[in-house]
Amino acid sequence: MNKFRADLHVHTVLSPCAEVEMIPPLIVQEALERGIRLIAITDHNATGNIRAVIQAAQGTNLTVLPGMELQTREEVHLLCLFETIEQAETWQKVVDSLLPDRQNNPEFFGEQFFVNSEGDFIRREERLLIVSAEIGLDDAAEQVRAIGGFPIPAHVDRKAFSLIANLGLVPPGFEALEISRHLKSSEAATRFPQIRGYPLIQSGDVHRLEEFLGVCEFHLEAPTLVEIRMALKSMAGRSLLIAS
Hints:
seven-stranded mixed β-sheet
């Protein structure tokens, strides 16, 4: 088995709440300098900068998984991870049809930039991305799975935009949950009994370079979504250790 330190919740400058430093070459550089070999790009309701980060990582030891942080009708944040960029872009088309047509106010919410692999500006996303899509959590998870993706409720311990805060429970069917940097994995089930028995990942929810966490240590044959799901189930020698 091979060891992969991972952070599966990373934003780019396409997310209005991300810092301007979150461009592909700096994301790749920072991850590698921290010994992280596997990341997922998960912008708010958007996938438009994933190809640029994948391209920036070519020729390095960093694997970039496509993803999205969807905001559901219940204002729950859901990580949607995919094996291929084509799956992610298929999901983007679905999400685009479910987002309200509301213009971004950069002075209030922040800029939303599409960039290339070198971090150069391409264009702005004019529609506001940090809004709820017109889809419920269960339906969203089902549709992500149908495309071949892996839905994981995000930062379930947070007081806002989380499954526990907004719903008070974990609906059946989820294979894993994400906890934030503010909760020790060893204390998670004690503080939040609703998540007892669920495999956990812990991510940085990276909006600035200094927020990379990289405490998830996966033991995998290869850095793929299939292997990650096996590790979360401790199948065939795959495993996950959270160093927090």
